[in-house]
Amino acid sequence: MNPSLLLISDQQTKNKGVSYQQLSEAGYMVHSITPSDLQHVSHIADAMVLDIPVFRLPKLYHKIHIWQDIPFIWWCDESEQIPHLSEWEAELDSIVYSGMNKEQIKWAIWFGIQNCRQKKQWREERNQLIQKLEERKWIEQAKGILQEWKQVSETKAYQMLRQQAMNERRKIADIASAIVKAYPLLGGTRKGGGSL
């Protein structure tokens, strides 16, 4: 089954109707709205096709970028002059135009959906890595505090963190951050001077 498409078509677009007709003929279920109707959209389709002039894309993109998990596909008017990549503000997943046949349109939309999925996966992986780095930072700082405070080795400090986390059924990073945050309140200072 082909994805459903939300076609955002500007009333000022010269070829209004062509994009809807070609997308429908390619087998897509197309729901067409104008940019001013965006605030009333309750159902988001599998992809958005933006049939608006290139100079209006950045402004519209800022309204719709909240739906970053939805592929953005631009219906390009072949007569428009495309801006240089350095001037491009919208994150598009694919581009289609009226000169494409049904199969080319299907492939372009399929690639757009795949691009969007890949970007979503990269964002999720990036966020997980950032979280792991943040947790690692807390753990390293807490190990340093325990080494200094309890006069133990780095390995023993980690074992203490791990044991406390198991006892409280919490993540090691949570225990570590609590230690680091409480340390200055207890009058602790790190080697080399100031408090944390």
UniProtKB/TrEMBL annotation:
ANTAR domain segment(s): 119-180
N-terminal signal peptide: none
An MF annotation (GO) of this entry: RNA binding
Pfam families: ANTAR
SUPFAM superfamilies on file: CheY-like
Name by which UniProt lists this protein: Response regulator NasT
The species this protein was found in: Melghirimyces algeriensis
